[in-house]
Amino acid sequence: MNTLHIIFFIFAFLSSYTFHTISSANDFCVADLSLPQTLSGYSCKPEANVTVDDFVFSGLVEGKPIAPFNSGLTAATVANLPGLNGLDIAAARVDMGINGTVPIHSHPDASELLIIVEGEVTVGFITPQKAYVKTVKPSDVIVIPKGLLHFVINSGAGKAVIFGALSSSSPSVHVADYLLFGNDLSTSVIAQTTLLDVSQIEKLKAAFGGSG
């Protein structure tokens, strides 16, 4: 065994030992939802108070459709599944009616993997140079890189069901429609920065609850 192999073996052994020591000392950190969330996440619930129910969520059921998109969402995040705390993973279910959409949005802190369960949908994500768009069907899987704007359109004849996994236990969501038209950003600023007609902006503000 040459010197390089010996160094590699020692490094691998020490890395494995360090990981084992850390994981054995702190196998999990169930979120204590009675305390406020901080920038670094939730505090750990005392292990004596942890039960198996902290690792189970039974609410990933069909979501109520939201107007005007005709799609419903349910999600398992650390807020309703405290055992996810620190694990950097969450789950979601999307139920889409005929012509339903998931509007253009992004997850700045998470990549996303979508599994098509029922129906036919068109999924796309956008970079400054290109739009990557694909029509997918049951058993297809598509991944959305972290932070990129993306969307889903029900392009089939019936309803569609999608399950997803995200690489954050508390993923943030930025929906373009609400960011532009759901707050008090003035119509004149939106018009100047997007080149949209004022009448169209006012129509969208009325739809998404914006003002100004």
What key phrases describe this protein's structure?
alpha+beta, 212 residues, globular, Jelly Rolls, 5-stranded antiparallel β-sheet, 3 domains
Commentary on this structure:
With 212 residues, the chain is α+β, with helices and mostly antiparallel strands. The chain has 3 domains: 48 residues, no CATH class; 117 residues, Jelly Rolls; 31 residues, no CATH class. The strands form 2 sheets. The protein has a 5-stranded antiparallel sheet with strand order 1-2-9-4-7, with no helix packed on it. Strands 6-5-8-3-10 form a 5-stranded antiparallel sheet. β5 and β6 form a beta hairpin. The chain is globular and about 60 Å long.
Radius of gyration: 22 Å
> What does the largest sheet look like?
5 strands, antiparallel
Write down the CATH class of the largest domain.
Mainly Beta
**Which spans have pLDDT < 50 for at least 5 consecutive residues?**
6-25
The CATH architecture category of the largest domain equals Sandwich
- How many domains make up the coordinates? 3
- The secondary-structure class comes to alpha+beta
How much helix is in the residues? 10-25%
Q: Biggest sheet, strands in spatial order? A: 1-2-9-4-7
How many individual β-strands? 10
Distance between the termini: 73 Å
Family: Belongs to the germin family.
GO molecular function: manganese ion binding
InterPro entries: Cupin_1, Germin, Germin_Mn-BS, RmlC-like_jellyroll, RmlC_Cupin_sf
Disulfide bonds: 29-44
